[in-house]
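Input (structure):
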């Protein structure tokens, strides 16, 4: 944590280090859930494609990534 003195309030202001973004947290949770990956038969190629999609979107949970996966699979038909 960084500490600075505020000239306005004459008190010490504490700045916490930035926490991981939700997107990173959701992606890690998705990638580390091996049982879920197996249950949904997620292939290495799909992981690579989803990794790119995650960079551009905002996801609030693993279900959002699974939704994108279903959409990707639907387009291949």
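Output (sequence):
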């Amino acid at each position: 944590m960084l500490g600075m003195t505020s000239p306005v309030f004459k008190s010490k202001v504490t700045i916490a280090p930035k926490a991981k973004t939700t997107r990173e947290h959701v992606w890690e949770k998705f990638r580390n859930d091996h049982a879920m990956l197996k249950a949904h038969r997620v292939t290495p190629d799909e992981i690579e494609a989803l990794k790119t999609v995650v960079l551009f979107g905002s996801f609030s949970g693993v279900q959002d990534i699974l939704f994108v996966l279903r959409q990707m699979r639907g387009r291949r038909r």
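Notes: The mean pLDDT is 80. Residues 62-75 form the longest helix (14 residues).
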